[in-house]
Amino acid sequence: MPEDHVLTESELNDALAGLPDWEVREGWLRRTYTTPGWPHTMMLTSTIGYLAEAAWHHPDLSIGYAKVTVKLQTHRVRAITNSDVELARQIDQVVLWKPTSGGALEGFPKKWVH
Fold first, then answer.
1. Residue from 32, 37, 24 nearest 91 by CA
2. What is the CATH number of the domain that holds 78?
C-alpha cells in the first residue's frame, strides 16, 4: 500500500482547478451530481460503487431521488490525499461522458447527469 500523502491547502487548490464542481468542505472532497430521476440515480450510484471497488478506495455517498453526493476522504488518515483526487477525476470522466454529436451513438435525449 503506498504511503498516504495528505494534501496541503495549496495542493488541494491546484487539484480543484482540474475538478470543476468539486469542493472541499469539512475535511472532505465532495461533489453533488444531479440526475434526470430515480433510475439514473441508481445507475450513477452503481457506477461510482464499481469504480470505487476497482480502485479499492471507497467514498461516502448520500443518495436522493435525483441527486448523489460523493464525499471523498482517505479514511485511515481522515484527510484528503492524492487517492481521493484521482478517484474524483475517474468518477467525473466516466459518469459525465456523453456521445459527441455526429457520432454513431445518439445519447440520452433529456438532460443527463451533471
1. 32
2. 3.30.1360.20
